[in-house]
Amino acid sequence: MEKERQVLVVFPHPDDEAFGVSGTIASHVNMGTPVTYACLTLGQMGRNMGNPPFANRETLPAIREQELDNAARAMGINDLRKLGFRDKTIEFEDENRLTNLMSSLITELNPSLIITFYPGYSVHPDHEATGAAVVRAVEKMPETSRPKLHCVAFSRNCVEELGEPDIVYNISAVADIKLDAIRAHRSQTELMLANMADKLKAKDPQTMAWLHNERFWTYPF
Q1: Which residues contact 51 (CB under 8 A, 6 or more apart)?
Q2: CATH class for the domain made up of 7-218
Q3: DSSP 91
Q4: Residues 6+ apart with CB under 8 A from 153
Q5: In 3-state terms, what secondary structure has residue 58?
Q6: Model pTM greater than 0.85?
Q7: Cα 140 from chain centroid?
Q8: Which residue ranges in the chain fall short of pLDDT 70?
Q9: What span, in angstroms and rounded, lies between the C-alpha atoms of 77 and 98?
Q10: Fewest beta carbons within 10 Å, which of 40, 71, 137, 139?
Q11: Closest CA to 169 of 113, 121, 131, 119
């Protein structure tokens, strides 16, 4: 992993960052790279309410916002942007508005690397719309000044259609930080982590591979 000038991470939901890129984020932070995380929503429409439930539809937004703050703190992110969109509505937002918002972030921060979802290969409509907005914003830039764009993909057909990931980071050195970031999103992850506890303790190879490796595809402009 090379040192970047500035990293911009753009995802639509609290916890999107934790599962797939929190080790990468922590690694960049440890190298002294400024990292900005722009999170479009507070996950207000999430279905998980904790296990046992400790949230309800009315309290969930505030709880998930606090969880997002906690995760950012665990990863060492000092610049967390909450962009104020409503969960499960990103696909219905005006495309020009989203593109211009991404362009303004890029202009302000001048990142050398942007991390987001790969449009068409990230399953959730909010994921797809967010990644597509980032791609449109970067496409508007002159080729010589475009940042690198590393995309997360996890649809069933992603490897079949995109090929193997272009980049696989082994983040085992910061795996504890990754787990802390996942735990921070307690309302969404508590049951999953409970189910994984024995596998983590036994260092199950498949579970450890999931924990220690973060995969990215570069976007082919």
Answers
A1: 190, 191, 194
A2: alpha beta
A3: G
A4: 117, 118, 121, 122, 162, 215, 217
A5: coil
A6: yes
A7: 23
A8: none
A9: 23
A10: 139
A11: 113
